[in-house]
Design brief:
CATH class of the largest domain: Alpha Beta
Radius of gyration: 19 Å
CATH superfamily of the largest domain: NAD(P)-binding Rossmann-like Domain
Strand content: 5-15%
Number of helices: 12
Bound molecules: nicotinamide-adenine-dinucleotide
Helix content: 40-55%
Shape: globular
Largest sheet: 8 strands, mixed
Length: 296
């Protein structure tokens, strides 16, 4: 696999492009929104500088890594020479179904079509294409350049050869792949999202405040980040979308999203990406300040 195209230049798309460019792959990063593409390049450049400052990357490599990433709003041109396309567009089934139809029509016959979806059915996405054996889930964790795990999701028709190729690529670029079968939320979000939702319910019911809930899970359960802060990083709209997939997929109210989460998403308080969620984010996301909404 030599040429990688990444579709969607949001939180995950820019991390995935950064990761592969750091490992010497030319990457085309595609989005419908040219502003998102410009912002993604700025974010990648800032993150590379941070890695260099921490001694994780030779500073002289920063321009070279950046030069391997090309941005584009032209999907047909961006995928015509791809060996692997990683779709990381918004967590919305109709958006992804139409992208998989287009990717299938435009990409070379041998190209593997992967999705970074957090919860949607890989088998369903594959069914929109003429190459279901070459469709697979490649679920990176946020932030991509830091987190080791890639959850590899085998659709009902994904071939063993394609699964092996994706695992090999993950290993070659320093990630640890873990193969799972295709059921709603796979493993990562099937386990994580009910915990986040329960933390939001506890806040909603006034059991404890934002900081206390996060502190209890950090100090008590040795989680590096509390569930509310983690939700802000994932994006509250993404959390809501995943919970809805779990609720519908399993037909169980145990995944019903908390009304507070719905209100925050409707109000556009989506976490780090909009500057407000359970916390408020200025320039430095490390200095946490609880959102005014949750201060007594
Ligand atoms: N945020 C996380 O922590 C996280 C972790 C793992 C997986 N994911 C998954 O990764 C995917 C992307 O999530 P995100 O957090 O980066 O979302 P995001 O909202 O930050 O970015 C999504 C991007 O997709 C673009 N987009 C939408 N429709 C498009 C189209 N038709 N063609 C090209 N671009 C399009 C949007 O303009 C936007 O820039 C989702 O499937 C999500 O579930 C997210």
């Amino acid at each position: 696999m030599e040429h990688i195209s990444v579709i969607g230049a949001g939180t995950m798309g820019n991390g995935i492009a950064h990761h592969f460019a750091m490992h010497d792959y030319p990457v085309v990063l595609v989005d419908v929104d040219s502003e998102r593409l410009e912002k993604a390049l700025l974010a990648i450049s800032g993150n590379l500088d941070r890695q260099a400052a921490k001694g994780l990357l030779d500073p002289s490599r920063v321009p070279e890594v950046l030069s391997r990433i090309r941005i584009s709003t032209d999907l047909p041109a961006a995928v015509s020479g791809a060996d692997l396309i990683i779709e990381a567009a918004s967590e919305n089934l109709s958006v992804k179904l139409s992208l998989f139809q287009r990717m299938d029509a435009l990409a070379p016959a041998a190209c593997i079509l992967a999705s970074n979806t957090s919860s949607l059915s890989i088998t369903k996405l594959a069914s929109e294409t003429s190459r279901p054996s070459q469709v697979i889930g490649m679920h990176f964790m946020n932030p991509v350049p830091v987190m080791k795990l890639v959850e590899v999701i085998r659709g009902f028709e994904t071939s063993a050869g394609v699964t092996d190729a994706i695992c090999e690529l993950a290993k070659k670029t320093g990630k640890v792949p873990c193969v799972v079968n295709d059921y709603p939320g796979f493993i990562a979000n099937r386990v994580l999202m009910p915990m986040i939702n329960e933390a939001i319910y506890a806040l909603h019911e006034g059991v404890a405040g934002v900081e206390s809930i996060d502190l209890i899970m950090k100090l008590g359960m040795a989680h590096p980040m509390g569930p509310l802060q983690l939700a802000d990083y994932i994006g509250l709209d993404t959390c809501l979308a995943i919970l809805k997939v779990l609720e519908e997929g399993f037909g169980s109210s145990k995944f019903s999203p908390c009304p507070l989460l719905l209100n925050m998403v409707n109000a556009g308080e989506l976490g780090v990406k909009t500057g407000h969620g359970f916390y408020s984010y200025g320039e430095k996301t490390k200095q946490l300040k609880v959102s005014d909404r949750f201060l007594a």
